[in-house]
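Render this sequence as a predicted structure.
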Amino acid sequence: MITQIMEINYEEDTRLHGASAIMNVYNPNAEAMQFTDAEISINDQSDFPSNFIVAGWTDRNTKNWWFDISQTKDESHNIHIGYWPGSILSSLGNGADSVSWAGYAKAGHDGVGPPMGNGLFPEDQKSCYMKYLKFVDDNYILRNSLNRTNVNVRVDSKKCYDLLYHADYTPNEGNSFRFGGPGGGKCD
């Protein structure tokens, strides 16, 4: 089974304590044994075993990792969904070394990859997106502008999926990217 990845990976010279974005995805059609998703992950590989979490930000005092949702782009009305105790994510206690905003697609047993996003390549305003990519820095301040020298863009199979990264910060979308693709049988 082949897994295809499209991601924006971001590393800073300081420890990272969270990440956020506004995501827009459609209803992709995944068959049995296929999956597709869009996610934000916070990763630390400086210790063994390494830890990562697929959403959240860390509380400065408790070191717990919170999962919030917000319906406003300025994040002024967050709803706390819950948290993971810092004790179960021990190597993330002092922050992470990178964050990723990504889309994934996993082929079924037949090797056919599912559609990702809306099933179309990201060519226009109708594409799936993640915008206002933000990270929490070592001072626990939410930053809304990525240093382009710290960004790594990865697309495993441009035959089936793609990602368009907009490196320049804009008031309408912040740092953002559009992603998706039709999938298919020859994605490797």
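Summary. The mean pLDDT is 81. The chain has one domain: 3-180.
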